[in-house]
Amino acid sequence: MFAVVKTGGKQYKVAKDDIIRVEKLDVEAGKTVTLDTVLMVSDGKKMTVGAPSVAGASVTAEVLEQTRADKIIVFKKKRRQNYRRKAGHKQHLTVLKIKDIKAA
Asked: Percent helix, strand, coil in the chain (nearest 5)?
């Protein structure tokens, strides 16, 4: 059984015991979070697609940790103008372990 959930403006295909890294959620490590925006649920035989989401479906996940992604370099330049700016960015992430998928 798998589901497609939407969180943080992105979509993730998840199954039981998957570990995913999503945009930061304000939940501390060890707590449980419920993702209610389920776009699709499939059990292998029957697939339910929501319009836009499946009513009554939810995904339960455990928060493993709050972490940060690898640093990316943001570099701006305008040629022949002696303009260069370099900055780094590390996105805040939440690591989730999928515990249960409940279909409608």
From this structure: 0, 60, 40
